[in-house]
Design brief:
- It is a single chain.
- Strand 11 and strand 12 form a beta hairpin.
- The chain is mostly beta strands.
- The strands form three sheets. Strands 1, 2, 3, 4, 5 and 6 form a six-stranded antiparallel beta sheet that branches. It has a five-stranded mixed barrel with strand order 8-9-10-12-11. Strands 14-15 form a two-stranded antiparallel sheet.
Length: about 260
């Protein structure tokens, strides 16, 4: 089902494409993410010109991942600029492409996709609240969403932090960029109930038969422990200084005990 907001002009062009598309001039410019996402795979292969404005919701240049979202939805863009960051308000010029799961925006020819930064530090969109059972479908692919769950494990590898989230009956992986040392691993999140804001990504196997869902989270600011989880970490018995460090006095000598 096509997302709401697909323009009548774009839909008409899709239906009439075989008869009227004899050159680039016959193709309308798609100006919203929803128009691009609403293309059929066959229509997207015709490389419709795209000109949209939105906010970068996730940026990981080391793994060639950029997502942008406007008021109608989110989409992957094949950007090349390593300086793009989440919260950048950008203008994107490119062409449509089918993508493995949903439609994407790519560059045209050797020129590549055009991404112009209009402002830095723009607020991220309000995330769509998604139920755990809806995480495995294609409806929310590339969308800025919010899910609730428990952090089951945390590890750092190849410059990224990986969290396993138990969201209802679903176990989903969350990925955060910018972690280049195990020393800064956010292991304190393990065992906490959290709300996570991120972009729902989907990876396909080489033969396109297996799909793996993950949550692309731009920063730790988008992982919010619940009030109950925070309270549980501080709801510990009061200890004296000597008790905390395991110090006990025996005669005139003091020994230090590590627990």
């Amino acid at each position: 089902m096509s997302p709401p907001g697909v323009g009548c002009l774009a839909l008409a062009a899709i239906l009439l494409a075989p008869a009227v598309l004899h050159g680039a001039d016959a193709r309308p410019v798609l100006r919203t993410v929803a128009e691009v996402r609403g293309l059929t795979r066959e229509a997207a292969e015709l490389a419709y010109p795209v000109h949209i404005r939105g906010v970068i919701t996730y940026s990981d240049p080391s793994h060639f991942l950029w997502f942008v979202q406007d008021s109608t939805g989110g989409i992957y863009i094949a950007a090349r600029d390593p300086h793009l960051a989440a919260g950048d308000l950008v203008e994107v010029k490119g062409v449509s492409a089918p993508g493995n799961v949903g439609r994407i925006i790519m560059g045209s020819g050797e020129a590549g996709i055009g991404v112009k930064v209009l402002a830095r530090g723009a607020p991220l969109p309000t995330p769509a609240l998604v139920a755990p059972e809806d995480l495995m479908g294609n409806e929310f692919d590339a969308q800025w969403i919010s899910v609730a769950g428990e952090v089951r494990s945390v590890r750092v590898e190849n410059g990224r932090a990986f969290l396993k989230l138990q969201c209802g009956a679903e176990l989903i992986r969350a990925v955060l960029p910018g972690f280049h040392s195990q020393d800064v691993s956010p292991t304190y999140l393990q065992g906490l109930q959290v709300t996570v804001n991120g972009v729902l990504g989907m990876q396909m196997s080489g033969d396109l038969t297996t799909k793996r869902t993950y949550l692309a989270v731009p920063s730790l600011r988008e992982i919010i422990p619940t009030e109950t989880a925070i309270a549980s970490r501080f709801d510990l018995p009061v200890q004296s200084f000597s008790e905390f460090f395991g110090i006990r006095t025996e005669g005139s000598a003091a020994s230090l005990r590590f627990i």
